[in-house]
Amino acid sequence: MKKPKMILFDYGQTLISEQRFNGIAGTKAVLDKCVSNPNNISAEDIQSLANEMNKDIGRYNPATNHLYILEVHNHQFQNYLYDYFGLIKTVSHLELETTFWDAASPGKPTKGIEKILLYLKNQNLRSAVVSNISFSGQALENRINNLIPQNDFEFILATSEYVFRKPHKRIFELAVRKAHLEPKEIWYCGDNGICDVDGAKAAELFPVWYKGAYEGYGFAPQNECLTVSDWQELIEILEGDLC
Predict the structure, then answer these.
(1) Would you place residue 1 in the very low, low, confident or very high pLDDT band (cuts 50, 70, 90)?
(2) Torsion over CA of 171, 177, 93 and 104, rounded to 10 degrees?
(3) In whole angstroms, what is the distance from residue 190 CA to residue 212 CA?
(4) Residue 165 and residue 133 in contact, taking contact as beta carbons nearer than 8 Å
(5) Distance (Å, whole) CA 144 – CA 153
(6) Strand-pair category, 88-89 with 35-36
(7) How far apart are the C-alpha atoms of 71 and 160, rounded to whole Å?
(8) Residue 68 pLDDT exceeds 90
């Protein structure tokens, strides 16, 4: 292994451990705060349509999620969903999606992530984020900065803003271009063996499979990679005898 010049991180279950998604809770929060509901539509009815829309799009199915390579921006999604039911948005797109996300899937930093980010900063090793996510880039940036305020990420890249999702190589290639490095000079850390590990490998980055918050969907990588169970283990590897 060669010592990286930069480490890219996945977001969900890598930087931040999110609670199991509860769409009903998120929609109830939106109805309480973010929309006018003249037809008294229930949260259950709204979430039922959202589930059907996701099936139509082909996303959020753990068995096939790695095959879904084009991202639909959440602002477009929520426009259809709320306009369909005649709900009147009373806040910005950003506040609406943030209210939903915070209620539907609260998160907290994965154990030890602050320590490794501080280590990287002290070692002058650059860091950034590449996340498969339909929420807007601003919503993602706000959440990361709120939960890990001491981060030193050069950029936070949300696939919602760039069409392509991991494991498609184009999203990795964009990150490489933004970093102004060669792929071989970058390590990519993520919990999903297919989207993160195999995707990074196909784009010629060095893949690291982080299993500290792994949810076990059966997505074991098909390629060789470095596997770590916690962030302290990765620190020790970086401190070791790398070329």
Answers:
(1) confident
(2) 50
(3) 10
(4) no
(5) 10
(6) antiparallel
(7) 6
(8) no
Residue with tokens 């995707």: 199
Q: Are 75 and 97 in contact (CB under 8 A)?
A: yes
Mind listing the pLDDT tens digit for each residue in 90-145?
A: 999 999 999 999 999 999 999 999 999 999 999 999 999 999 999 999 999 999 99
Residues 70 and 166 sit within 8 Å (Cβ to Cβ) = no
Within its chain, how far is the Cα of 94 from the centroid? 17
Residue 95 has phi, psi (to 5 degrees) of -65, -35
178: tokens are: 């933004």
User: Alpha-carbon dihedral of residues 117, 203, 214, 145, nearest 10 degrees?
Assistant: 40
* Phi, psi values for residue 111, rounded to 5°: -60, 120
CA 11 to chain centre: 4
How far apart CA 230 and CA 236 sit, in angstroms, is 11
Report the first-to-last Cα separation within the chain, whole angstroms: 7
Give the tokens for residue 32: 């309480």
Q: Match 């139509």 to its residue by tokens.
A: 56
Could you write out the DSSP letters of every residue in the chain?
Answer: ----SEEEE-SBTTTEEEPPP-HHHHHHHHHHHTEE-TT---HHHHHHHHHHHHHHHT-S-TTTGGG--BPPPHHHHHHHHHHHTT-EE-S-HHHHHHHHHHHHS-EEEPTTHHHHHHHHHHTT-EEEEEE--SS-HHHHHHHHHHHSTT---S-EEEGGGTSB-TTSHHHHHHHHHHHTS-GGGEEEEES-IIIIIIHHHHTTPEEEEE-TT----S---SS--EEESSHHHHHHHHTSS--
